[in-house]
Design goal:
InterPro entries: ACP_syn_III_C (IPR013747), ACP_syn_III_N (IPR013751), Thiolase-like (IPR016039). By secondary structure, the chain is α/β, with parallel strands linked by helices. It is built from 10 helices and 14 strands. Helix 8 links the parallel strand 11 and strand 12. The longest helix is centred in the last third of the chain and has 26 residues. It is globular.
Length: about 350
């Protein structure tokens, strides 16, 4: 018996504030051993969440496009809500309940995902697909908030580091339905537990993240760690994308649009070359938005849909890896068009 079709019906997004140019970070930059590393070549612009703006605020603003196109009732009546927030507003719990309340929802399922990282949208789509196909509802929302740039990376002590100039903030909400409108053709999710914990926070002097002390925490990058992450990311993203292609019988050259996370320009180039795709078929907003972490895939997908790069009938391949390479995922959708 075939499973019922599940579709990624639509997506809408939000970028906070005005674009912030690279000059903003140049005024704070100090000598940094990693400043010339390819991982930290800054984008021209990025957006920052304001100190007063919560991740729930961001999701509510991102959802407006879906409300305008599909109606408030569709959002309020969703059976499943799956969320991912890069920097939770509160340490002990995720934002799922607060998002449900803000959007007027009474979902049967509320799930906060943390392990998906930059591939959270693919992981959430996989979970939503399984829940809807198994009879747990007819509609799901995927809500992603990347809010680390204007909070974590803009701390006075961190903004002086090369790593601070790359991230940008943004949010997205995807609508998943039990339908054949824009069917999910295949998904591949892989966990690489041996790399879990290799992404770390660094403090000087060392302390737990929750302990009081001098100085702000930053990502604990070293040349050795960066080399390993580059090697893993270069391998994992094409691997999961090709696994999906193999499962659904799609020649990679027939991918209509490739949408990935966007840590830096090197990864973007290497991934499309590995899949033998021309640059114009790989959508990114790196120089406009920087590294959007988990919001990268839905923001780029929304842009590809809005400007007609992704047309009805095209197959869009979404692929990403997370953290230091502990998770990777890819999903193919045959786009049916936006109503």
């Amino acid at each position: 018996m075939n499973e019922p079709a599940v579709s990624l019906t639509d997506v809408s997004t939000y970028l906070p504030g005005d674009p912030i140019a690279a000059d903003y970070y140049a005024q704070f930059a100090e000598s940094d051993d990693l400043r010339d590393n390819v991982m930290f070549r800054a984008p021209k612009f990025r957006h920052h969440v304001s100190p007063e703006e919560s991740s729930i605020d961001m999701i509510e603003r991102a959802a407006q496009g879906l409300i305008e196109r599909h109606g408030q009732d569709v959002i309020e009546g969703a059976d499943v809500l799956i969320t991912h927030t890069q920097v939770p507003d509160m340490a002990f719990y995720g934002q799922g309940g607060g998002i449900a309340h803000r959007l007027g929802m009474r979902p049967s399922w509320v799930l906060d995902l943390h392990n998906g990282g930059c591939a959270a949208f693919v992981l959430a789509l996989n979970v939503a697909r399984q829940l809807l196909a198994s009879g747990q509802g007819r509609t799901a929302l995927i809500a992603i908030a990347q809010n680390a740039a204007g909070q974590f990376f803009d701390q006075p002590g961190v903004r002086r580091k090369a790593q601070s100039a790359v991230p940008g903030d943004g949010a997205a909400v995807g609508l998943v339905t039990l339908s054949e409108e824009s069917p999910v053709l295949g998904i591949e999710c892989r966990t690489y537990g041996q790399y879990a914990g290799e992404m770390t926070l660094a403090y000087d002097p060392p302390r737990k993240w929750w302990q009081a002390g001098p100085g702000e925490g930053s990502i604990g990058f070293t040349e050795s760690k960066i080399t390993k992450v580059l090697a893993r990311g270069n391998r994992q993203v094409p691997e999961v994308a090709l696994a999906v292609c193999d499962r659904i019988g799609l020649d990679p050259k027939d991918i209509g649009v490739l949408v990935t996370n966007q840590p830096n320009r090197v990864f973007l180039r290497n991934w499309r070359e590995a899949l033998e795709l021309r640059a114009e078929r790989h959508r990114d907003t790196f120089d406009e938005c920087g590294n959007l972490f988990g919001a990268g895939i839905p923001v780029n997908l929304d842009r590809a849909i809005s400007d007609g790069q992704l047309e009805a009938g095209d197959v869009v391949m979404m692929a990403a890896f997370a953290h230091a390479g502990d998770f990777a995922g890819a999903a193919a959708v045959r786009w049916g068009g936006r109503a």
